Every structure is written in C-alpha cells, then in structure tokens.
# Entry
Amino acid sequence: MAAPRVFVSSTYYDLRHVRDDIDIFLKGLGYVPVMHDKGNVTYTQGDVSLEQACYNELATCDIVVCIIGGKFGTQSSGSDFSITMEELQEAIHKRKIIYIYILKDVYAENFTYMANKDTGSFNPYHVDDIRVHEFIVKIKNALKNAPILPFDSVSDITSNLRQQFAGMFQHLLTKESTATEIKTYYDLQDATSRIKKLIANLSEEQIDFFQKFNSCILAVSFPLRYLLEKLGINNFKIFAPNKEAVFEFLNQIGYIEIPPELPFGEPSVFQREDDRYTYQIELANELFEDNGIVKDIRKTEILNEYIKYTVQQKDNEYDDLPF
# Structure
C-alpha cells in the first residue's frame, strides 16, 4: 500500500536534531520521510547535480515540510537563494501541500525587519544573513493561505503536523462520502456525448425538447459564465466547481498552462495559438477559495480584474503572395 511521501526541507547543521525527531514522527504515522541526509534522495551519475537531484525528488513527494532557522545554509548554484529556499520555491511551483515552520526568535525578529527594512540600517541578531528575512517576507506575500507558524521546540512542529494531517484525512473522508453526488467534468462530457448520439435518432419534436433540456441542465456560476463569454463560448455550459476542474477544462479546449515565474503570487496563465493569433487567459488566485472552490463573485468589475483575456496577432514575416 502506497504511503504519503513527505519532503523535509531545512538547513542541516543547525537543525539536525529537529530533522531527526521529525523523521521518527513521520515514520510513526506510517508516512515516508524524504531527507537528503537520511539517504532518501536518489542521486544519479552524469549531468544531474546533487542539488538538482533534491529538486527532482521533491517533485515525487505529496507534502513538503519546510523548517527555517537562523542559518542561511548553502547557496544555490543557480541563484542568490539558498538550496533550502529554492526547494520551497520548487514546492510552490509544483503546487505541493506545504507547511512552513520558522524558529520563534527568527519569526519575531522578522516583524522588526519589515518595520525597518527601508531604513537600510537594520542589523539582524537571530539570523546570519539578511536574505533569510528577505525570503520570509516573500513567502508571507506569496502564500496567504498556507500555514506559516513559529516553533520553539520540535514538539510544536509535530503537534501542529498531527492536527493538520488529521484535518486533511477528515476532509478526504467527507469528500469520499459525497463523491457519488458530484459529477466531474469528464462525467458530464461523456453524458453530453451520449445525449448527442441519441438526439441524432430522434424526431424534430424530440430534438427540440432535448436541446432545451441540454441548455438548462447545468447550472453555471457567475465567474464561469463570465469566463465562457470571454472565450466566446456561448452555447456550452460546464460544471467546474474548483480550480482543478477549471484548469482541466481549459486544457481540453486547447489552452496550455504557462509555468509561473518567481517571485510568487502570479496569476495562472493559459495560452493557445493558431496560424495568426495568440490567445491568452489569466486567472487571478483571488478567483478561488483557500480550498480551490470557485468563489461566488457577481460584480462584473471584480471579475474583469480577476479574469483577463487577450488576443495578440502574430507578426507575419512573409506575404501570403508567392511573388
């Protein structure tokens, strides 16, 4: 039976005892802790560096636990961030479930840093590099809904993780119990296809009935209706209750997601192209609840801010005429 894989990211030497205790805690739950110092990261020969191997292993994990102390750690070979910071950014980019814990003294000092960072005279006491505080501020701005908590001892971390995992399990049980009452996008797509085949064999009177039936069977929320209007889809209705379903719908009609660039907090961008135009749709994070459910937004001016659709004509290098 597969068990959840939990990637533990932190600097090593100053937080070694914390990592050891969390390793024991996760194994006690039946989870699989993934830590480079425990030999859980697969290192390959060839062109893949040890740093990149950590990022590759993180992509295979279900949950990421990031612990931030007072040490900057080893700087990444590809940026001014540390490897630990880059691991967290990779987790955000891969949309992993993330829990962040910051050493209590560093957590408190960060508020002092934010109040004095523009003066240029702030000298940190609890961190060895000002970039630690700079990175924490970026995390707070980017992850409005992820838990970012201070800890004084490892028991603070394990106690909170126990509560978080229990809540996640309870949410899964609730979701499973109502799964039979929810139609997914694929279910509806298949049902629509079968209805269309039946319609082809019906009389004109029956066809008229089913067309009316098909036009009202699916309730569309205001944001989804607005999105369909932007895309020029006026005779098609979808049931997409959450972010994952909306993204899947866009993929089905030919829009490809463009990976976001750092820093964090950027909207989700999808594009499709034809011979003459590039079509782009941007969906702001504020369009969705913390759990991914599409918000019930009914003001057009707000939706216009959260859903942006652009069409850009491509530059034609040659004339259509051959002479």
